[in-house]
Recover the amino acids of this structure.
């Protein structure tokens, strides 16, 4: 997302996809890997581990998108952990599950955790990991939990994202007109997202020094 990319001042090339797997693949295909020192997946994630709360940072130890799995570069991961540690941030570690569609319900999150062992889920890390592996580049992933494992993500929230990751408020209003009872869930999702972005902002400032 543009908002996530903007949280790392002075960062290198940033690729935004708004959770659109196909768009991310196309944009990465246009990138010259020769100009890159490494690849970092940075942004929001859904919680699969019930112990994770909105705003918790997670540093990936693996990325799983069945039937594929990807390893993380320990040096790059340690550099990220060290950098954000200077800001007093201590991410937990665990596997990330990569998916092609938003995981909306606690039941679906629990099922994904059961089959993958992952602690968090997102729609971009596995694509970035595949790109890095194909070009022999170090890869790491640092994400902040937005929706926790026990919280359903309202469909309106997922449907209202543009390809750039911005919120289409016209879609939000239209969605609420169709399902006004979703407003409570949408407000909770907004608070969760705000906590996650606050954590990413702190991490981004620390990572700018890398």
């Amino acid at each position: 997302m543009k908002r996530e990319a903007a949280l790392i001042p002075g960062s290198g090339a940033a690729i935004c996809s708004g959770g659109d797997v196909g768009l991310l693949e196309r944009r990465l295909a246009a990138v010259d890997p020769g100009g890159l020192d490494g690849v970092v997946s940075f942004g929001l994630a859904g919680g699969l581990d019930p112990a994770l709360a909105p705003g918790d940072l997670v540093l990936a130890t693996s990325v799983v998108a069945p039937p594929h799995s990807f390893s993380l570069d320990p040096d790059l991961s340690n550099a990220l952990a060290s950098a954000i540690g200077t800001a007093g941030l201590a991410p937990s570690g665990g596997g990330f599950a990569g998916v092609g569609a938003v995981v909306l319900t606690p039941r679906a999150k629990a099922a994904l955790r059961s089959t993958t062992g992952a602690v968090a889920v997102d729609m971009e890390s596995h694509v970035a990991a595949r790109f890095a592996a194909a070009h022999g580049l170090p890869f790491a992933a640092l994400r902040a939990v937005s929706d926790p494992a026990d919280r359903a993500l309202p469909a309106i929230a997922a449907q209202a994202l543009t390809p750039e990751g911005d919120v289409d408020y016209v879609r939000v209003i239209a969605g609420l007109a169709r399902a006004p009872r979703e407003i409570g869930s949408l407000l909770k999702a907004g608070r969760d997202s705000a906590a996650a972005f606050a954590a990413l902002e702190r991490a981004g400032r620390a990572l700018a020094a890398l």
